[in-house]
Specification:
The structure is a single chain. Helix content is about 35%, strand content about 20%. The chain is α/β, with parallel strands linked by helices. An 8-stranded parallel beta barrel has the order 1-2-5-11-12-13-14-17, surrounded by 4 helices. A 6-stranded antiparallel sheet has the order 18-19-20-25-22-23, covered by helices on one side. A 3-stranded antiparallel sheet has the order 7-9-8, with helices on one face. Strand 22 and strand 23 form a beta hairpin. The mean pLDDT is about 95. Bound molecules: alpha-D-glucopyranose. Alpha-D-glucopyranose binds near residues 155 and 222.
């Protein structure tokens, strides 16, 4: 094994790594040496093909910022039964134009206590129903051959109570207990509860769980069977980093850092986004830079806007390469329900102010609920107050308000705080269950807007063929308490077949999306390097976005209302990207839920 690259990269980052580590772990040099030895060991286990990928990516460090990337997130079992099935279905993913696939959690978990796979009982083992680690590696190889990158979750805030560490802790092993937060009585937990909000207020209230069999209390921010790891213990950090690198060595290109804002706990705080979280994520980034520099970190930071961007780190000390654009996602649904684009316009300006290197993953729907983390202080000037507005949005998307075609369901409805979240697939939330034609226009417009944003667009599997909500989860005792299963139904291959049947909704949506995606991939104006801003369209229902590069410009318009809007933009002729025809934006009518992508060239 040739360690030259490893040694060069370790040396280049050594001082910073050591400084961060020793400061966090009180100069525990033994732990630090264990850590660097572990890095070396993980490097030695990296396959030749992955080392080669690392080399290529170092040459093109911006490889993931190309407008040619299109993502899809999917559940292995829902999509194709198991990992081998996914491999067989790669041609379908290619047909979708997808070259970046996020596999939802697939590691060992306990049925009925899995939180959709986010309660991991073994970080080195695939759920037997889905296959083996070898299957995962084979899938990664097949994906790489087909030009597809793979992303996998790294659930690092907690383990399942069935993880060997948790079992040993339960049985009284003090070393294992030190990996978690164990308490003899409720004094400290009660203190924490004074300042720590709840993640699952109805499905799993509180942040601690009493274990009757051993008479102890353990910290469980999420479900009671998900025990929070204590990252103040260097053994936890060392072993979890090793687990991360193990997954990277299986051929994963992107590692999703699940629930990263939660990983550091301190009494008297909210236990979210604490400064130490950034020390830890910086150290993880350094570990990857040293061992597997081709691998990217995607931070799952579902927080209000100001809390998200710090997870990119700084130019000198970067943390995650990718973050979810959760704020734009939420604000997009808000805009649909209010037909008022002002908040989105503000958000566009806020995104524009971020350093150009910040790359977001854009999406309409994912496996989780929509949490309505909007900019309420700003919205209140228009009379939209937090509690009442959340109520409005939830009423709209559950179809309770007159005129709403949406069919969603509430998630963790907390009447105490007036705080419920929302579930449903894109098609159902866009109203296709009740008004197919208008819903289809709406769905296309929403995707067109998503594809206009800078960053990586990621589809939610099933959305490309307008899959509706799956109401069957109500009858499954393992799922019925968690309404997120509403949009986690099995992929409907019969529905997908209709993409080839002309004039069906599936064919129109599928081909409509493909057209947009191809245009996006071919047009540099959609790239991360293009500047973007929003402009006034004269209608609060119509979002106007301009993307520009020297000498050329893209004008994009999105009507968030079902009513046609007459616009007087006073702009010269442009070329409609979709039809290739000239378009006069001087005075024209944009149909209900219509959109335009138009190009102007030869600008000075
Ligand atoms: C993340 C996941 C969510 C899960 C939670 C706990 O937020 O997206 O599905 O419930 O982490 O691991």
């Amino acid at each position: 094994m040739d360690y030259t690259d490893f040694v060069t990269r370790l040396n280049a980052n050594y001082d910073e790594l050591k400084w961060l580590y020793c400061e966090l772990y009180h100069n525990d040099m033994m732990a630090f040496h264990y850590f660097t030895d572990m890095l070396r060991r993980m490097y030695s286990q990296r396959r030749q093909s992955l080392l080669e990928l690392d080399r290529q990516r170092i040459q093109r460090p911006d490889w993931y910022r190309s407008n040619g990337l299109l993502g899809m997130m999917l559940y292995v079992d829902n999509f194709a039964g198991n990992l081998q099935g996914v491999r067989e279905k790669l041609p379908y993913l290619r047909e979708c134009g997808v070259n970046y696939v996020h596999l939802m959690p697939l590691l060992q978990t306990v049925k009925g206590r899995s939180d959709g796979g986010y309660a991991v009982a073994d970080f080195r083992k695939v759920q037997p129903e889905l296959g083996t680690m070898e299957d995962l590696e084979q899938l990664a190889d097949a994906c790489h051959d087909a030009g597809i990158c793979l992303a996998l979750d790294f659930v690092m805030n907690h383990t399942s109570e069935d993880h060997p560490w948790a079992r040993a802790a339960r049985a009284g092993d003090p070393v294992a207990r030190a990996r978690y937060f164990f308490y003899r009585n409720w004094d400290v937990p009660n203190e924490f509860e004074k300042t720590v909000p709840q993640v699952f207020p109805t499905t799993a209230p509180g942040n601690f769980t009493y274990l009757p069999d051993c008479g102890e209390i353990v910290m469980t921010t999420f479900y009671p069977y998900q025990w929070d790891l204590n990252y103040a213990n260097p053994m936890v950090f060392n072993d979890m980093t090793e687990n991360l690198l193990f997954l990277a060595n299986r051929g994963m290109d992107v590692i999703r850092l699940d629930a990263i804002p939660y990983i550091w706990k301190e009494l008297g705080t909210s236990c979210r986004n604490l400064p130490r979280v950034h020390t830890l994520s910086r150290m993880l980034r350094l570990a990857c830079e040293i061992v597997c520099p081709g691998v990217l970190l995607l931070g799952e930071v579902v927080m209000e806007p100001a809390k998200v961007a710090p997870y990119f780190g700084t130019e000198e000390k970067p943390e995650c390469q990718l973050l979810y654009n959760v704020t734009t996602m939420c604000s997009t649904w808000h805009t649909l329900a209010t037909r008022d684009v002002r908040l989105l316009r503000r958000q566009i300006e806020q995104l524009r102010a971020l350093p150009r290197g910040s790359t977001f993953q854009n999406y309409l729907r994912c496996h989780d609920d929509i949490g309505w983390g909007l900019d309420y202080p700003w919205l209140s000037q228009f009379g939209m107050e937090e509690v009442a507005h959340k109520q409005y949005l939830n009423d709209w998307f559950t179809g309770k308000r007159p005129g709403s075609p949406s069919r969603g369901e509430l998630y963790n409805d907390d009447p105490r705080l007036g705080d419920a979240r929302l579930c449903g697939t894109t098609a159902s939330l866009c109203g296709m269950e009740t008004d197919e034609e208008l819903g289809l226009q709406c769905d296309l417009m929403m995707h067109a807007w998503m594809l206009t944003q800078s960053g990586i667009p990621v589809l939610y599997s099933g959305d490309e063929v307008a899959q509706f909500n799956d109401y069957a989860y109500h009858d499954d005792p393992d799922k019925q308490a968690d309404s997120r299963y509403l949009h986690r139904g099995p992929f409907n291959w019969n529905l997908a077949l209709r993409r080839h049947v002309p004039d069906t909704v599936q064919a129109r949506l599928f081909s409509g999306l493909r057209r947009l995606e191809k245009l996006r991939a071919a047009e540099p104006l959609f790239g991360c390097e293009a500047d973007f801003n929003s402009f006034e369209t004269g209608s609060d229902a119509v979002l106007g976005v301009r993307r520009s590069l020297p000498g050329r410009e893209l004008i994009a318009l999105f009507n968030f209302s079902p009513e046609p809007q007459t616009l007087r933009l006073g702009m010269r002729c442009v070329t409609d990207l979709l039809t290739g025809e000239k378009l006069d934006l001087g005075c024209f009518e944009l149909p209900g839920y219509g959109f335009v992508w138009a190009k102007a060239e030869g600008l000075s």
